[in-house]
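REVIEWER CHECKLIST
Item 1: Sequence provided? yes
Item 2: Single chain? yes
Item 3: Sequence as submitted:
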Amino acid sequence: MQPIERVMNRLQGKPVDCVPYAPLTSLYGARLISCPLEEYFSVPEKYVQGQAAVTDAFEPDIVFTPFGLVIEAEAFGSKAVYFEKNPPNIRIPAITDAGDIYKIAVPDIEHHPRLMYIRESTRLLAKQYRDQIPIAAICNSPTDLPALIMGIENWIDTLLFHPAAARSLMELTSRYFVAFANALLADGASCIFTPASFSNPLIITHRIAQNVLVPVLRECYARINGPIVFHHGGARLIPFLELLHDLPNVAGFVIDPRDSFDEARGIMGTGPAIMGNLNGPLLLKNSPHTIESRCLKILENRKADPKFLFTTSNADIPYDTPVENIRIIKDTIRTFGAP
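Item 4: Structure as written out by the authors:
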């Protein structure tokens, strides 16, 4: 069974030959081709070469476009810093005060060089793999992108004390998100993966999530021309899942390693697919035996769930993770077989 058939069947609850799996190896491709990260996250051909190496090494059922959340923020004017072995991070946000939101404009998704890097990577991946392997395009949530534009603390302050300014900024990021996500789908992406770190009970109150953020997501997601996978973004998803599980066009949820599959499925019902729970960043420190045991525990828990896909949770698998620590995931899943 081809990966695209395996994934599509699983999303619909149809039989598969084995559970589809998708380790988040956007960063890891740079290691496999020994490419400096600043070049890897700037030259589409290098990124695609890295993902070809990932595909050859691990045979994933989904290929990811660049995990380029910071790259999108660069298009809004934020300045990034690049590292030898870690993903880029924001060095200087575009603005630092709610009063400066008027300075922010939606970048040109047809010409801005940082966005064209993501789009061209998507096109090249689609050209190479779309008939065999689904392409998942990673795109900032319209409620998270402001944190990369003005800094996390400033965005929280704006949400709490400057609601009019927060609405103005989310109007811009919403307009951008819809246009960019639909452009990526037109470029050949099969679905949109969107991390939503601000659906986080440690940062945002239930009232703000329900009355401010979720309505923005609901309006934006309804305008996307393809399926969306809602990624937990490093936060536990269970506390807000009752607000999120029926968002339009959401085909699945990637849950946090601390979340319970059973509890999440109980909230969501049988509609969306469920993914995640294996902590990708910790693969660096675990032994293959420990990883195998964790994978088997997850597979056993989900063996009766026809809409379970095996993905890693949290951020990219670290650059220095031993190859065998990733390969054991595939080997364990393939030998476990279909539930």
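Item 5: Key structural point noted by reviewer: The longest helix spans residues 163-186.
Item 6: Recommendation: ____
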